[in-house]
Amino acid sequence: MFSKFLQTALVCLGIFAVTDCRAQEHVLFWGQELGVGARAIGLGGAYVGVADDYSAVYWNPSGLGQVRRMEFNLGFSHNSVSNSANFMGNELEGTASSSRLNSLGFIFPVPTYRGSLVFGFGYHKVRDFDNVLDIEGFNPQYAAFADIVVPTYDGWVTDVNDSLFQQESILEEGSRNHYTLSGAIELQQNLFVGASLNIIRGRDDYGIHFVESDTKNLYRFYDEANKIVSDLDYWQYDRTIGSDFSATNLKLGVLYNPIKSLRIGATMTTNTEYEIKENWGEAWREYYDTADEAAVYDYQSNYTYKLKEPFAMGVGMSYRLANAMLAASVDYQNWSEAKFLSDPPVASVSQAEINRYIRQELTSTTSVHLGAEMYLPMIKARLRGGYFNQPSPYKNKELHPSRSFYSGGLSLMMDKQVMLDFAYVTGGWKQESSDDLTYAATREDKDFSKLIGTVLIRF
Question: What is the extent of the structural domain holding 429?
Answer without folding.
Answer: 4-458
